[in-house]
Amino acid sequence: MSSFKEIKANELTQNPFDIIGKDWLLLSAGNANKFNTMTVSWGGVGVLWNKNVVFTFIRPQRYTLGFVDSEDYFTLCGFGQDFRKELSLCGTKSGRDTDKVRETGLTPIFDEAAPYFEQARLVLVCKKLYKQDFSPECFIDHSLDSANYASKDYHKMFIGEIVKVLIK
User: Fold this and answer.
1) Which of 49, 63, 72, 87 has the smallest number of CB atoms closer than 10 Å to its CB?
2) How do 73-78 and 122-133 pair as beta strands?
3) Banded model confidence at residue 43, pLDDT cuts 50, 70, 90
4) Which residues pair with 29 in a beta bridge?
5) Coil, strand or helix: which one is 91?
6) Can you tell me the mean pLDDT for 64-90?
7) Do residues 132 and 157 lie in contact, with contact meaning Cβ atoms separated by under 8 Å?
8) Residue 16 sits in which domain range?
């Protein structure tokens, strides 16, 4: 029996700046046979194309990128500050080399279109709508390019429709 309840996206009352930038999120994609998760602290929520959406960013060297690229859905899980150690591990270790589930003790659930975690207090199930690579010539403030992309490993931006919101 799941400890989550479904709500509408417009019923969310949590501050998105805190959820994303302060508490961080785990982005996950894949299936019960093979999946990966990574920490994200850049992104946002809003309305685009008459849909409730999230936008998130993944660097090309991240193992999770292959899962997001190959799947139609991904999840974003919010945990709060109590899980800072676990989210830090998921943001600094690669799933190529590390069993993040074993090392963090997080419990994956596979009853949605993408995996999420029992310990989360918020889950956004997202359907991919759009992907675009960041490009150096698109920076208006060129200091952002030099400050964030010394290795020229430009993020890929994903926009996903929020198709389900689960909370505890």
Assistant:
1) 49
2) antiparallel
3) very high
4) 36
5) helix
6) 96
7) yes
8) 5-167
Chain length of the chain: 168
Domain count, the chain: 1
86 contact partners, CB below 8 Å, separation of at least 6: 79, 104, 105, 106
Mean pLDDT of the chain: 96
* 35 backbone dihedrals φ, ψ, rounded to 5°: -150, 170
pLDDT band at 1; cut points 50, 70, 90: low
Contact call for residues 45 and 125 (beta carbons, < 8 A):
no
Cβ-based neighbour number of residue 93 at 10 Å? 17
pLDDT in tens, 28-37: 999 999 999 9
Residue 122's nearest CA partner among 83, 70, 78 is 78
Exposed, middle or buried: residue 66 (CB in 10 Å: 0-12, 13-18, 19+)? Answer: middle
Query: In this structure, what token pair is assigned to residue 74?
Result: 């991904």
Q: Which two tokens mark 133?
A: 């690579």
When pLDDT is cut at 50, 70 and 90, the band that residue 2 belongs to is: confident
Please report which helix (H) or strand (E) contains residue 67, including its range. helix 64-70
What's the chain's Rg over C-alpha atoms?
15
Q: What is the CATH number of the domain that holds 136?
A: 2.30.110.10
Q: Which two tokens stand for residue 164?
A: 């389900």
What tokens appear for 43 in the block?
């992104």
